[in-house]
Amino acid sequence: ANAETSSRSRFYITTAIAYPNGAPHIGHAYEAIATDALARFQRLDGKDVFFLTGTDEHGLKMIQTAQKEGMTPHELATRNAGRFREMDQRLNISFDRFIRTSEPAHHASTQEIWRRMAASGDIYLDSYAGWYSVRDEAYYAEDETTVGEDKVRRGPQGTPVEWVEEKSYFFKLSAYQDKLLKLYESQPDFIGPDSRRNEIVSFVKGGLKDLSVSRTTFDWGVKVPNDPEHVMYVWVDALTNYITGIGFPDEKDANWKYWPADVHIIGKDIIRFHAVYWPAFLMAAGIPVPKRVYAHGFLFNRGEKMSKSVGNVVDPFALADQYGVDQLRYFLLREVPFGQDGNYNHEAIVARTNADLANDLGNLAQRSLSMIGKQHGGIVPEPGAFSDNDKAILAQADAMLAQAREAMATQQIHMALNAIWAVVAEANRYFAGEAPWALAKTDPARQKTVLYVTAEVVRQIAILAQSVMPDAMAKMLDILAVPADARDFAALANRIKPGTQLPPPAPVFPRYIEPTDPAAKS
Ligand code: ME8
């Protein structure tokens, strides 16, 4: 790295790594899109960003699905890891590395963290007897399970559990209760949102039992050093991906400088693994803990939990084809407060994209730029002195960056979008109120100023909205003739240059029109 990159502040962000036991679904797409928007935002803000994603390929769930499909777990993982990569490509996910936990380097890395945990005296051999959920890949205490009317015993997330009894290595999690509580206190931003933090603090205050960290009844996984009869519990290896991905255990690796992670983005169902087990493993191994773990909510299709058996699993490729990638990205990030559960349905996405994108932002850009095109030969006009109205809208646009930064620093992506769309709304009121189409005859000098101010506000909106809608905003910056090296947040401080020749404006957001129902045709 040159001096310039090494002096920039770093930002390391990760998604959870998905189980490739099936094709990616909208929940995976949602997490990838949100994490991508956070990563792009920091890049545009001048940070040296590393963004890791990938697939979590070991564990019983993979073994059982592979058996059903008549393939090996590795074949199943390879097929579906390919689908996850394709999804990332389709959705414009700007990851720096896609890690697969079946990679030899990851096995070596996980064995090294195990050795360090063992060296600190936190791993011992015993035998496990208790409940296990294959769907959650989680051990549960008896009092966390309930037997339903169907006589099936289920864990706290509603998935069936089975009785497991076998020789097993244990991690001394019980020894970490106080250290974890101290961590939550000394690093108050360690867990977000606050509701999740409270949930974890009371879970840990309730006492921690030692954790079974190996199995002997199957061999698909990372082998325990010096005891190859055991493979590690899948979560030990899964969590370790976050350090393998940046070169662990080679601390001379060029990417190791990114540790500790700035934020792990995960779903609310796996907060316990990330906010309890992971920091405890790291402390045992003498590795610094991440700065923050942020849990987003779950997406539901019309209020129902998606499941293969209900048949309402939403395919992210189909959604991208139907609505457009940037429309989908915008919808998910604007509609659902990040951290809460949300609903997806056709009417909501059409309403959002037609109102916010096609009408409010698209038309504003189209109307102002085509007026510059038709009446000024496509040349950004020279403004006169700014009126109070001009100053007010420019000031509101100038304030967006600070608001967006504050929101994105705590993963409040929807709040950043709210701040930007407040300016979109205000700019529309400004444009309608100033009526530049009428000024063309009554006060041409004033019209130039109004068009200049509008173009400048659209430029700022487009620069800021890039992290959520990279392609659409690139198009918008193209029609504003903004050079490639003037699209980051540092460029917000310079105004658009009068005299700039603009290309003919092309519409950026088509309206969504319902495909005609063939049954309705006579
Ligand atoms: O949990 N809405 O993998 P996974 C929103 N391999 N997010 C959802 C969702 C939904 N409907 N369904 C799942 C795993 N997710 C582990 C992670 S990390 C070291 C190992 C989220 O494929 C889920 O919360 O079941 C998780 O963050 C991610 O998708 C992958 O889920």
UniProtKB/TrEMBL annotation:
Keyword line: Aminoacyl-tRNA synthetase, ATP-binding, Cytoplasm, Ligase, Nucleotide-binding, Protein biosynthesis
Record-linked CDD domains: Anticodon_Ia_Met, MetRS_core
One protein family per Pfam: Anticodon_3
Enzyme Commission code: 6.1.1.10
Methionyl/Leucyl tRNA synthetase domain: residues covered: 12-144, 162-368
Keyword Oxidoreductase annotated: no
Main localization of the protein described in the UniProt heading: cytoplasm
GO molecular function, one term: methionine-tRNA ligase activity
Locations listed in the record: Cytoplasm
Top enzyme category: ligase
Residues covered by the Methionyl-tRNA synthetase anticodon-binding domain: 380-510
Top-level lineage group: Bacteria
SUPFAM superfamilies recorded: Anticodon-binding domain of a subclass of class I aminoacyl-tRNA synthetases, Nucleotidylyl transferase
UniProt catalytic activity: tRNA(Met) + L-methionine + ATP = L-methionyl-tRNA(Met) + AMP + diphosphate
Motif ('KMSKS' region): 305-309
Subunit structure: Monomer.
Main function: Is required not only for elongation of protein synthesis but also for the initiation of all mRNA translation through initiator tRNA(fMet) aminoacylation.
Database matches in NCBIfam families: metG (TIGR00398), PRK12267.1 (NF008900)
Protein name according to UniProt: Methionine--tRNA ligase
Species, as recorded: Afipia carboxydohydrogena (Pseudomonas carboxydohydrogena)
This protein's encoding gene: metG
